[in-house]
Structure prediction request, 140 residues.
Amino acid sequence: MAQSGMTKARPRPLSPHLGIYRWGPHMMVSILNRMMGVGLATLGMALFTMGLMALALGPDAWAHFIGVMRAPVFLWLGRMLGMGLTFALFLHMLAGIRHFVMDIGAGFELKSNRTSAILTLLGAAALTLIVWAIILLGRR
Prediction:
């Protein structure tokens, strides 16, 4: 029997998805890079903009802004937020350097790719610790 102009659709192959791949540091850094970029663009810029607006409105507004940021309620929350934003900045920066190196054609081998991902994570953590050690210990 001949078909009447309509052919039976063949099943299309499914694209590999996250469940198929074995997770590694390179995948984690790629996802974290995007998350940190969004965090910096939203939360970091919101705080930065509020600070700039307070500066532009004069000394009283700036004093109020600093007073709110130094309030006991925000002391630990603010430090954690600052540490998170600092880590996000360093991770995003180091991941950008890593991607730049990959864009020029280097670092695609699995071993070097994983090594650069691990170094990106460790570097961001180390730089965050150094900056916050200077901030917290420099006050004494």
Residues 35 and 109 are 25 Å apart (CA to CA). The helical segments are 25-57, 59-69, 72-103, 110-137.
